[in-house]
Structure formats: structure tokens, C-alpha cells
Amino acid sequence: MPISVVIVGSGPSGFYVAEALIKSEADVAIDIVDRLPTPYGLIRGGVAPDHQSTKRVTRAYERTALNEKVRYYGNVELGRDVSLDELRAAYDAVVLTIGMPGDSKLGVPGEDKKGVIGSAAFVGWYNGHPDFKDLDPCLETGNVVVIGNGNVAIDVARVLVKTPAEMTEADLPRHVSDAIQASPVTDVYMVGRRGPVEAKFTNVELREMGQLENAAAIVDPGDLPEEVTGDWSDRDKRLRERNLASLKEFSTAPRDGKAKSVHFTFYAKPVEIVGPDRVTGARLEKTRVVNGRAEGTGAFVDIECGLVVPAIGYTLDPPQDVPFDQSTGTIRNDNGRVEDGVYVAGWAKRGPSGVIGTNKPDGQNAAAQILEDVKNGSKPGRTQFETLLKSRNIEWVDFAAWQRIDAAEVANAPPGAPREKFVTTADMLKLLGSAS
Ligand SMILES: Cc1cc2nc3c(=O)[nH]c(=O)nc-3n(C[C@H](O)[C@H](O)[C@H](O)COP(=O)(O)OP(=O)(O)OC[C@H]3O[C@@H](n4cnc5c(N)ncnc54)[C@H](O)[C@@H]3O)c2cc1C
Question: Beta-strand (E) ranges in 247-318?
Fold first, then answer.
């Protein structure tokens, strides 16, 4: 009997576990489960819609999904449709690769007002994630404040100020591109607690901000140090030097008549979201960096705006019975082992950091642990799982069905775009006509 493995979550980390198990050439039967009909996690729902080349990594995941040892069960949610105990009973190994889908809170007064939308929700909305289809993006405003100095903050700012022509090859759903193009947004303030040297942007993403057709990157030269000082590794220092050079270029570049602006607002932390029940502004306290930490200076500035997007990190609200470590916000584990027969990889294990490839060693680690712990298969795996799903009338989407969804999305694409996404599970199931 093969070793039966169920991987819960079809993002990069889930696929890297499956890939490593296949490469091991062990006798395994691998089932990949996702709460959405569509696979690929944040590659579909997080990576920016105008960065299609990054999304091409899914071609490798597709090869994995089509391997004879692998089955895909979309539209099945751990905690809603099946429990961890049921998966443990059915499979020799359960791997949790469920990511970190929630938004970290700012922790300042007023953040529950209408018009404060965390980046997980905002990015989910513009990427057509079914959870956020009905989000009101609060774009009837000239100014937007994005809080955070990482690549996600840059993605949000860029998507808001690019021209329709610049977005032709993106896969923004139609209702999203309509909403963005109809909005009066002209100014995006990207707020970082610390300075340009501490910012976490990668240089390719930062440089792109200097090349936008109708949006200028605005940097106050007074915020820019002469050179990068501080205790950085050689690699980090080089990255920061490149970023500093790009920001210096932005600070002296002519506007060239560009109508929109992205303001790099360093040394400022949000202390209050202002407004009656709806956001009218963000109150920031100016900071200085002492020993790498941002300290308030007691000087305040208000930015008038109708939308605040905190892009400051992610959280996980774990499904029932999944062991959770409050201190790290991740699934409790010892280097990937959660409990007997249960493993974790990816963001749910390490927290929300790193690039797509960072999840690969995690996946390999989980696969190696499974093969170390389980020498022979003893549990039925997918036959028991499918019986359970059928007994509950759960309409799962297999990989062939996903390929039909994919083909329909590609066929519906506007000129130049790679696809027009389905943004509700109901529409995807309607296309499929019936249960898999
Ligand atoms: C906005 C954004 C942009 C990014 N852009 C880039 C980029 O350009 N380049 C780059 O290298 N990295 C980028 N990253 C990072 C990269 O996306 C992550 O490193 C990677 O997706 C993490 O993989 P994961 O498998 O751990 O989680 P995820 O990709 O989040 O996958 C988790 C999967 O689990 C499923 N799931 C969750 N809960 C359940 C449940 N209860 N039952 C069943 N299934 C469940 C989800 O539907 C999802 O498919 C970006 C991240 C974000 C947030």
C-alpha cells in the first residue's frame, strides 16, 4: 500500500512538498486539498496582476499536479468540510500548507473605520479572490495612504496609479479595473516607520516606480542619507545601496507632466485613523531611527485620505483543533513536525516572509520528515476521503475541472490580458455543470 499523504493548501509550499515526495521516488499517493476551486494560493491571489512573469511558476506546479501520484481536491476546506482528526484517520501523513490569509492589525485608534482595508483584503479584491468579491474598495478619494515599506505596499501603490495601457497585460477582473479607472485617486502616500535604508523593497520593484507612465515617484531628498551605514551583511548592504541609489534618482527626476504621484513618506508612523465613521485622514507621528528602531519625535502630521491600506503583515486564524502558537502566530511545530503524522510548511510554519522560492526548502523538509517517520503505508487515504466527501455532498473540483475553469478564463480574456478570472465559486461550479 502506498504511503498516503494529504497536503492541505495548494500554494507554493504545498506544491513543493508534493514535488519533493514525487522526486523521492517513494511509493506515495498524494492528495492536494484547497478551500478554493482554484489552485496556487497567493500566486493567483497575491502576486500582482501586472507581474504575470512571476505567475509562470505555476507551470511547474501544474506538472506536479498532473503526475500520476497526485490528485487535486479544490473547494474542500479544512475546518468547514473536514476536520484534522478525519484527515489523520484517513491518511498516513497530513501536511498543513494553509498560509497566512489574514491581515495584521495596526493597533491604533480608528482602524475599524470604513475605509481601512488591510492589504490581504485589498490585494485579494484586485486579484479576484472570491472572499473579497464584494469588498467596497473605498476608492472615491483623491488620496490613499498605504502603510508599510515592503513589496506588497509597492504593489498596491503601483496598481492604483498605473494607466489602463500599462495594465493591458494584467489579469485584473473587469469590475476591478473599472473601479480603479473610475476612481479619482491621484496621490498615494507610502508610509514607512523607518528610513529609506531600512525599507524592505526589493530593487526591481522599487525601480519600477520610477518608470510609470503617468505617476511620479516623489522622494524628499532630505530623507536620504549620503550612504548606507549600519550593521548589514554584505548582501543586505548591496541591496540597500541599490535602493538608496534608486531613491536618489527619483528625488531629482523631472515630473514630466505626470498627473499622479506616489509619495515615499519615510520616518512616519500611524498613530490614529481620523474620521467620523469613515476615514477622512491618517495621523502620523514623525520618527527618528535609534539603534534600528523607530522612535516617535512628538511631531505630528495629518494626511487627508479616504482609504488607508495597512500592508504590515499577515495572520492566521487556524482551523479548529490545529495546534497554534500564539507567540509566533504560526501553527505550533518543531522544525515542521506538528504532532504524530502531522506536518507544516510555508507561511503557516515560518510566518509571512520570503519569496516564492523560500518555500521550497520547507517543502523538501516536510517530505523528508514524512519519509523518515512513515516507512510503509497503512491508511487508505483517498478512498476514505472521497467516501467522506460524498457522504457530505461536498462538490469537489478535481484538476481536470480546474483546467476547464482555466481554459474558460483564458477564452474570456480581454485583448492583451492573460485571462478574465471567475471571482465566485458559484460561477466556477456553474461552468462545470455538476460535481466532479
Ligand atoms: C500580496 C503578495 C504579493 C506577493 N508577491 C510575490 C512576488 O511577486 N514574488 C514572490 O516571490 N513572492 C511573492 N509573495 C510571497 C509568496 O506569495 C509566498 O511566499 C507564498 O505564496 C507562500 O506560500 P504558502 O503555500 O505558504 O501560502 P499560500 O500561497 O497562501 O497558499 C495557501 C493555500 O492554502 C489554502 N487554504 C487556506 N486555508 C485552508 C483551509 N482551511 N483548507 C484548505 N485550504 C486552505 C489557500 O486557499 C491557499 O491556496 C507575495 C505575497 C503576497 C501576500
Answer: 260-265, 268-274, 281-290, 293-304, 307-310, 314-315
Domain count, the chain: 2
14 CB near ligand 1 (under 6 Å): yes
Q: Which of 268, 298, 314 is the last residue of a domain?
A: 314
- How many other C-beta atoms are found inside a 10 Å radius of the C-beta of residue 168? 14
Residue 341 Cβ contacting ligand 1 at under 6 Å? no
User: For ligand 1, atom 21, which residue shows the shortest CA distance?
Assistant: 42
Which CATH number is 413's domain given?
3.40.50.720
Instruction: Show the cell assigned to 300.
Output: 505630528
- Give bridge partners of residue 33 from the DSSP assignment: 8, 73
Q: Which of 298, 314, 330 is the last residue of a domain?
A: 314
* Residue 223 one-letter amino acid: D
Looking at the structure, tell me whether residues 130 and 234 fall in a common domain: yes
Look-up: residue for cell 503601483? 158
77: containing domain: 3-101+316-432
**Shortest-distance Cα residue to atom 38 of ligand 1:** 98
Yes or no: say if 349 and 327 are a contact pair by the CB < 8 Å rule.
no
**63 and 204 share a domain?**
no
CA distance linking residue 330 with residue 326, whole number of Å: 7
**Ligand 1 mean position, distance from CA 11 (Å):** 5
Per-residue model confidence (pLDDT) at position 38: 98
pLDDT 10s digits, 130-173: 999 999 999 999 999 999 999 999 999 999 999 999 999 999 99
Q: 0.85 cut: is pTM over it?
A: yes
Q: Strand, helix or coil at 411?
A: helix
CA distance linking residue 62 with residue 39, whole number of Å: 9
Name the residue at shortest CA distance from atom 7 of ligand 1: 47
- The set of cell numbers assigned to 308 is 488607508
Q: How confident is the model at residue 436 (pLDDT cuts 50, 70, 90)?
A: very low
Q: In this predicted model, what pLDDT tens digit does every residue of 179-194 receive, in sequence order?
A: 999 999 999 999 999 9
